[in-house]
Specification:
Helix content is 41%, strand content 17%. By secondary structure, it is of the alpha/beta class. It starts with a strand and ends in a 7-residue tail after the last helix.
Amino acid sequence: MRVLVTGGAGYIGSHTAKELLNRNDEVVIFDNFSSGREELIIGGQVVRGDLRSVENIRQVFKAHQPEAVMHFASLIQVAESYAQPAKYYNHNLRTTLNLLDCLLEFGVRYFIFSSSAAVYGLPHKTPIPEDHPLDPINPYGATKSMVERMLQDYDRAYGLKYTSLRYFNAAGADPEGRLGECHQPETHLIPNLLLYFLGEKDDFMVYGHDFPTPDGTAIRDYIHVTDLARAHVLALDWLVKENSSEIFNLGTNRGYSVLEVIKEAEQVTGLTRPIQFGPRREGDVPVLLAASQKAEKYLGWKREYSDLKTIIETAWRWHQRRQKSGGRPAGC
């Protein structure tokens, strides 16, 4: 298929573009490069544009005539969304509306949405199933939940078919070493920890050590980015075959605490450095675990790289190579 990948120069978007290219799909990457990186693009056609401009979107649709759209482009920092909610509502909602309206205008039938476990808020039970009530506790999660509601209405009224994929904690790097995690600023646990071990960060802070968990630190469900990318490809195939909208969690049904991640990283790297403890961040919940049986059943999704050791090993190898190559800022 000819697939338009918005945010295709970002972390998850670039890994998904690689999976599409591996099976000979035609890939068009649409990115404004505000956070995406050119070094994360390994193929396909690249269009520099901004989803805030309807005319930019129309131009790429006219020129490339995509048959499906995978939408990764969004702002993703929970803490920033608390401090600047207007920025998140304006960007994440307006850009998606612009994109959806162009899908309707140009008759594109299939849409894959990059959603988040943040739509659930404080879980009533774990692992969290897809039919769990949605009650986001931060503006970032609220934007993802609102887009999902928009998609339901666009399906009902206009017949636009979509798959919404609710990620838990994406982590790791391309096992072949070509791609990795590159955010500025970096806010995710594993890359921050590895950058600290590499001497590119002066300190490392654990936010919260009084959660109601066995060791007092937050527990999260980590999913390898390549397994996540492959789920997008399977979701597209399923959507085309079934022509029916659906929502899937993407996780592992297994969680690790922050201290468990640090211990595994120490074993993988052979390094140990002092760790500081600070207060919880606003909006952090004690435990987030995905019930992923639905994706396994419907999509035939299997996780190949999502054990914690492999996640950290692949990320460590990529960051080591990135550092040795020089010329790139910390984290990318």
